[in-house]
Amino acid sequence: MNSLLCAACDAAYWNEARLRCAVCALPLASARGTRGGHGAGRYPCDACVKAPPAFDATIALADYRAPLDALARGLKYRARLGLGEEFAMRLAHAADDLLDPADAPTLIVPVPLSRERLVERGYNQAWQIAKPLARALGTRADATLVRRTLHTAAQARLDRDTRRRNVGRAFALKDGGPTLRGLHIGVVDDVMTSGATLDALAQKLKAAGARRVTNFVALRTPKD
């Protein structure tokens, strides 16, 4: 692959040795298994066992930390759109390792932006990852299936409880859209922090009949 990353960032990706929760992708405190093909050795964290979120799994490339956090900011705020494809190709590679090929996502959707934020930014960074990810996985992508109905405050600046209240009513599905009954939906975002946004979106997809929801995120904060 003709990488856009410098050697330090590339090494930070491929040398990411953390075992992660199979559900929320938080780093696990202890090594309870080894990573293997199609999800072998992946375990849920205690929090996901006690209070499972609406989504079923999360694939994350690495922690949100230097130097990789600069890449996420470059895509999100500086229109370095080529990074979207870079993230997508690496997520597709991770999916080959962690997902059962017989149960791959049948539809990829990005976490939507509000109309106000989309106008302000000019693009949705999650869609810049979702489009090439769908191509790499051999499935389809839909940027219009889910819309954000509330213009909420920036999640990164809020505490966990406020984040969850912030996004609880934030999403709606397209009227007259495709039926989701029995589908495995892949949801794409650039950074996962508390998981509140992805949980709220998965609840909406499950209510519409989705059988399974897998998150694909470039970077995961190491703590909720």
UniProtKB/TrEMBL annotation:
Q: Which residues form a coiled coil?
A: none
> Which Gene3D superfamilies does this entry report, sorted A to Z?
3.40.50.2020
Assigned protein family = Belongs to the ComF/GntX family.
This chain belongs to which protein, by name? Answer: ComF family protein
